[in-house]
Amino acid sequence: MRLLAGLHDADRSLTKHAASRIPPRIGKVLSAVEETAESTKLWCGAAAAMAWLGGWRGRKAAATGLTALVIAQLTSNGLCKQLADRPRPPKEWFPHDEVDDRPDSSSFPSGHTAAAVAFTAAVAPAWPAAGAACAVPAALVALERVQSGAHYPSNVAVGAAIGLASAWLTHRAPRLMLRHWL
């Protein structure tokens, strides 16, 4: 029980710190990146560019990334948010008006982070340069979710873990199915 209390306190402290320490100009950049990632637009656009410009490797990376993204979205938004009813951080902690734009759904876990990490982690093995390029906006999306007041850091961490697990499953599932069924 003490561990959970300690994690809760750390979550609150890190959230308040992010809300007060990130300069407004950086906050605007983070918000712009998150806006492009809203409804997975950024990742779908990246997949289209990879498929168009990257030949066979680009199409494979795009398909793998989108598959992992769908798994992450279903897991985070379709399952976990329905099971966990964690409120968003209090509005009073945030000195900006972005906090008014956050959703009313459960804050646990971060679906934006799950999608960003899933796409990036699934793309990287197929096309490392594209994965590296996707890592920057994925990290910015994760940071923005805390800075904007939409999530606690633990929500973002669990979203990232769901994204990594989704990418792993996307890469491993074909081999596991072949081995198990054939």
TrEMBL record:
Pfam families: PAP2 (PF01569). SMART domains: acidPPc. GO terms for molecular function: hydrolase activity. Keywords: Cell membrane, Hydrolase, Membrane, Transmembrane, Transmembrane helix. GO terms for cellular component: plasma membrane. Residues 85-104 have a biased composition (Basic and acidic residues). Residues 85-107 are annotated as: Disordered. The keyword Thylakoid does not apply. The keyword Hydrolase applies. Residues 64-171 form the Phosphatidic acid phosphatase type 2/haloperoxidase domain. It is found in: Cell membrane. It is a multi-pass membrane protein. This is Phosphatase PAP2 family protein. It comes from Streptomyces actinomycinicus.
